[in-house]
Amino acid sequence: MAGSISRVIFILCCFVTSEQQNILKKDAFDSVPQLIMSAGYPVEKHRVTTTDGYILQLHRIPAGKRTARKTFSAKGKKTVLIGHGLLGSSSDFVMMGPDRSLAYSLADEGYDVWLANLRGTIYSSHQNYTKNNPKFWEFSFHEHGKYDLPASIDKVLSVTGVSKIMYIGYSMGTTTFFVMASERPEYNDKIISFVALAPAVYFANIKPIAEWLLKSLKILDQLRVQGIQYLNVRQDVREMIIQSMCYTQKPQDNICARIIYMFVGNDEEQYNQDITALFLARFQPASFRQFEHFGKIAMTDVFTSWEDGLWGSVRKYKLSNVRVPVTLLYGENDQLTEKSQVLRLAEELNATGVLEDVRPASSWSKFNHLDFVFAKDVASIFNKPLLTTIKSLFYKYG
Known about the structure:
It is built from 14 helices and eleven strands. It has helices at residues 2-13, 32-38, 102-108, 141-160, 172-183, 207-216, 219-225, 235-245, 255-264, 273-281, 288-300, 339-351, 371-374, 378-397, and strands at 44-49, 54-61, 79-83, 112-115, 124-126, 165-170, 191-197, 230-231, 286-287, 326-330, 355-360. α1 (2-13) packs antiparallel against α9.
């Protein structure tokens, strides 16, 4: 899905040249803790090791910017854990700064905010394998849900001392939760409520694309033959792509925008060249299996586990194991996690009595898949109403 965007951009870059410019801000490649500290917020780093040997770093904002450093205490505060999407990391929820990023807004509202980093990001490693070892990349979001999210939740509970937390997932971060609920249903007891942003469970809308890329072109198999084991683009190449393709005088000449909109839905009004540059500069590596697993779901039209591979048997995840209140928020113009597919998921959750609500994420009619995190006016068109929802859920269930 989003990985296809990066590949297409890379290919087109071979045909586009321009004078190199220093257009990325100097903090474009700063670590997440550096970004949080620079924004004036307290930050903590925590490490957790999964039962299968992956070491993950969580980032915590225990208090808001307005809270005096010497007086704040996170003990007993309402705690929120946020899970990122494909090609993302904890960076997604802070990179746009204090005025627009969700993590800062939550911290300023008095929440104890934790940001997850799933295996594969730069904030992950392994006890035995380096990232140059193909075995490191033998995972999909199945492992994210079975190992990474449970370990992260346990770490948050251990440090904070609270008995339950709220989980907010974005895109693949929602898939991760539904896998966890299916495979590790005991973790329902540790969640107050789940807010799903752009829920990524059903993909009938992209079945033709998945079949073309994975079945006809066999694009990932071809890359593996060339010794490429995971999706990544070197930093210098990313900078060249951004400088060559993402900064134009005329919006209609912006190749970045045109390619991205092809996959996520058109929203020129909420597009910002600087934001897109940051998004591309900070995108994270991903295993091929993550794309293949999404592809298997699209081609079979079943929310299936990986089992014995892309062409292997189909085993449906048990959505009936979800036992916490679930709020589904979709974009009216989201072309990846399409409205019709989210409503299909809503019907299943409603049948088991766990659906809290399903509704548009924003009143903005062009709200697309990336707008949940990167819309120019995300603070007003999305974060503000979301904060109201979170407050009411804590009041009702917390």
